[in-house]
Structure formats: structure tokens, C-alpha cells
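#struct-queue
[09:14] JT: dropping the first one here, sequence first, then the C-alpha cells:
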Amino acid sequence: MTFTTANLCDDHSGEDYFQIAESAFISYGAKPVFSGQITTLKTFEDNALVRSVLEEKVENRVLVIDSGGSHRCALVDNNMAMLAINNGWQGIIIYGCLRDAALINKLPIGIRALHTHPLQSHKKGNGDRDLLVSFAGVNFKKDHFLYADMDGIIVSASLLS
């Protein structure tokens, strides 16, 4: 699907469930334009569940991770980004940090994160999956649709064209 978030906004902004994320994210990865149905995670400074989810084979999905906006460690690194690519994930949104940015920027995946941080997270397995998560002025729900490009991130309850 070819799209721009600007055109999607022009065509659909009056619809019932259409949201635009605040401009808080930095773009990483060599694929700045991506879209897919949402899978959500809520975990704080713990990436064990992130890895577990990225190990699943998927088609046309985007992982949205609410890490409480933590700037104290990274939830995703280049190995996890490769895992995501190999299993069909289109992109990752992290309300937190990543590391290995120089390596990730060469990979064919789109990732948005608040910042980078060199310290890896804990691996205790804490967290919840497929809950409503809210950050950047958006309610991210499982199976809703996310569209991201260099202009921003939008979320819709239905598939947009």
C-alpha cells in the first residue's frame, strides 16, 4: 500500500476513530514508511515480553510498546530488530528507547522511539499484551491500523485507503 499520512489525514480526518500522534518520536530503520494492524505491549524497562512477541510469525503487523516513556534503558536493539524483520513485523513504536541505532538504521524496518540509550533493559518477563495503551495523545488498540511516515503517525479503527 502506498500512502502518505498527510493524504490520509486529508481524506479521513472527519471519521469517528482517527487519531494523530504527538510529534514526540525519532525515526529509526531504513524503512521510514510502514503500516499494519496493531499489537500492543505494556512493560516497564523489561524487554523479555518484547522478544517473545517479536519471535511470533506475523503478517502486516506493527508492535506498539508502552514503556512509560522511560529514558533509563533500551527495550529494542539490533538483534530484536532483525528478529522482527525475519518474522514479518512491519514496524515498532516504542514509548521508550532503543539502542544500536547505527545498526538499526541499516535494517529494512521502521521504528519510532523517544531516544536512544546504551543500557539494555531487564529481562524479568513483566508486562501485559493486547491491552489498550495510551501515549502521545493516542489510544492504541489491538487490531486497529497504524500508518507511519516522515510526517507522523496516525491510527484508525478501520483500514484506510
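[09:21] JT: and here's the second one, same format:
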Amino acid sequence: MDDLLFKHHFTFKKRYGQNFLTDRNLLRAIVSDAGVDEKTAVLEIGAGAGALTLALAERAKKVISYEIDKSLQPVLAETLSDCGNVEVVFRDFMREDLAAAERAVGGDYLVVANLPYYVTTPVVMRFVEEGKGCRGLTVMVQEEVARRFCAKAGSPDYGAVTAAIARRGSAAVTRLVPRTLFTPSPNVDSAVVRLDFTAGGFAVRSEKAYRETVRCAFLNRRKTLENNLMSAFSLSRGEAKELLGSLGVPAGVRGETLSPEQLGALSDLLFAAGKSGK
């Protein structure tokens, strides 16, 4: 890969968080972790030099890969020259209309990506909240971010992003990846995490109400959930106590102690009371 990048006078750009993987065995393992097969359509965010794209193309039915850095066009053209099932889109995915991107994929799809660290959470949350045809994501992220995605209620890593993912499905780390396998080497180790939207998850009466309830629960970790409810939804103390009491939640608890399912039940009550999700 280094020879190819040198040939096309490519220079790494910090603003794009470019850290490329080249280990073919690891790349094929990531594709396997994602559950990609000959029937799978894949959306990749950040093609880079095309190493993961190439591994995806070996197994997937179709790959649509977004790349923000147009200087990688000649590199990708050479890397993917024999891949008739790959389309590279040279645009910023975060500015793309997701509904239009999903129509281009055509049906259900998986997201597989070595995500630039600076956009990891925004990209993942976009699919969690807006991805209609997305069956799940398998992404390379910072190890600490992977822990947050998979955290349990009450743990230090548990937060709003954990609860958002849990409503859609399950999350699990499939492998740890040391920083030494990247070019250039980042300052942190990474992990591959798989988010599966076909297993787990739960329904709520209003997705908007759930997002507002989750935001409230983690609004101020130093305050009790009761106080956060009063602040976020203009409830009286009596109303907040009554809501929590109906769920069997003890007085004085903090939001991060409630499971995603409990937060979902709370959001349903707030929605039914006309306090949230309007």
C-alpha cells in the first residue's frame, strides 16, 4: 500500500483522521465479523486506500463506499480496478441525504467501516436514528468508544449513546486491534464493534420521546433523575415522583442507573402524559 500511495503522491491529512489498515487477514476477519455474504449490500464510510473495500468486494453482492478525500481517486481506481461490484462516491457522507443513499443501495444493507475517530459517534448515531434499511454496523472505533457502545447500566461507560443503540438492537466487541497495525499509527488502540439491529432492541411509543428522555437522564450526572425530569419537562416534584414510582424506581436514583428498557418505559409515560415527543 505504501508504494501505491507514494506512486500517486498521496499525503495523509490529519483533518480527515486518516489511519489506514493493510493487514489482509484482519480485514477479511472484519468482513466475516459483519456477516457479509454474496447476498449482502454494504455501505462503507471512508474508503481510504481501499483495503477494506477490496475485502468487502470479495464477499459482498454490492459495495457503495463514501470517501471525502478526492486526492485518493487515482489510488482507489487502481486498488479497485477489478471490482465490478463497487461504487465509490467522493462526497462527505455526513452531508449526504441518507434516504437517497439508501435508495442507491437498494434494499436492506450493512454498514462496514474503519471510521475516522473524529466522526465515529455522529456516523453511528445517524444510522441508529435514521437508518431505515440498515440491518447493523460493524465498525472499527477507538477502544474506549467501543466500551461505551456496549456498556451496561450503572457502569462508568454507560451513557446516552449506549441507550440509543440498545433501543435498536445489540452491541458487542468482536476483536481488539492494536495501534501498531495502522498507517500512520494513532495514539490509541482500537476495537471492532458489531451493532446488530436484527436482534435485541425494543419498541417505544415515540422515538422522539425516547431520545428526549435519554437526553434528560444523562443531562447532569450529579443530579438525581427526579431533578432532571423536573428541569427537562417542567414537571412538579410530585409529578416526577409519581412517574418514577409507577415504574418502581426508588427515590434519589440517578439517570445512569436505569436500563435502556426502563428509560423506554419512562419515555412512554411521558409521551402518554403529553410531556414529551410532541
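[09:30] RK: nice, looked through the second one.
[09:31] RK: Residues 260-272 form the longest helix (13 residues).
[09:31] JT: good to know. The domain at 207-272 is CATH 1.10.8.100 (Helicase, Ruva Protein; domain 3).
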